[in-house]
Write a structure and sequence with these properties.
By secondary structure, the protein is of the alpha+beta class. The protein is about 70% helix and about 10% strand.
Length: about 450
Amino acid sequence: MNHFVTAQYMAAAAFWTVAMIHGLIWLRTRDEIVHLVFALAAAAAGAGAVTEAAMYQSSDLETMAASLRWYVAASGFIAICALCFIASYAGVGRFGRWLAAGLTVALVGAMIINHFSPASFLYTELVGLREVVLPWGDRIWLAVGEVNPIRLVNEIALLGILLVVADGCYQLSRRGQRGRAIVFGASVVLFFVLFATHAFLVDTGRLDSPYLTTFGFLVLVALTSYDIAGDVMRKSILSSELRQLESDLRTAVADERNRIAGELHDSVTQTLFSTSAIADALPEVWRRNPEEAKRGLEDLRQLTKGALAEMRSLLLELHPATLVETDLGDLLQQLAEATTARTRVPVSVQVDGAMKFPDHVHISMYRMAQESLNNVLKHAAATKVELHLDCRGPQAVLQISDDGCGFDVDDHTAGMGLRLMQQRADSIGAEWKIDSEPNAGTTITIAWNSRSRVNA
């Protein structure tokens, strides 16, 4: 039994398995041409391994000529597919693409000549066979003939492929994939040394050795298949994560819609109901007591003003870009008016100076003020609230004060909302402080420095 020939058939089986896997991947995705050309190259390598094994077992010139012609045809197809794979896998530049196109034309021409040549593209005439005994005792047959001078064009074309490889490795390195460039470049160079230089020495009788093209390409296929299969796995994981993010986004959108609907019901709808009730009663109240009717008109004005402020706030929630474009002082004033209209708790706003905040800081400051007012309304039982934004220096200070019941700041069970505010402050590099005592009100201070290292 010829162990070397058996190894050739085993290599062919491995090539065809890889070709089938990547062919199926391409059929499923249809957007990764690299899998198609890689599958074709692996399939051609399998055919090349089989024809090479047949050539080793040819014991007469006629059989050797036929086997050699099919072996050269398979080798040419391997070179063309490998060239296309290199160009697509490495993402070569314009020079690499033009060079690859020219080399493909040259290789196709060599395959046409090989088809019509009686002694394959490699020889003008076969003159005999030579027997090679391998170190472990296996015997194989190789062709002896007059070397075809045209094959030098093919050898130059194969050297040109190395230029395409060099361009591809350069492009990979530019994209930050230096490790991939080194492994890919080294394996391709090893393959082409065996495919061109070593094979030329065997063809010309300078080296009594079997061809090692099959095993050189097997190394290239193994390394590259592992790499691009890893790409498939990473893309599959990213696709799964993307689907999860889309699901989370849909859930978040639904939750936000429900929240806004709840706020519309709890604030604007109730305010408009009160406005409608006052408007219906005003004519009768005016007839009986004009002074009281005037107070009703003032209530009506405050309610409609508050409803307008509430609607503006909700519209800002629906359009985050507008939230960033609106001045922070105007946002605080709008927030205060909406709060006053909804709760009848007076909220005053004082803004000193002006400052252009980064978008994430702008939004975080607004959210912290919003959360502070929500906490006051839910827990403080305050009769008044004051918002003060001081932007007169490199440091912007936002202060929210109320005269409510206060609480013990050391009681950590009393502050999920406060902990969220602390996290928002930390995320923008702001200092966050809370001063409060039972029955003595609460003051929250947020100081953000535009010159701090975090915000530089």
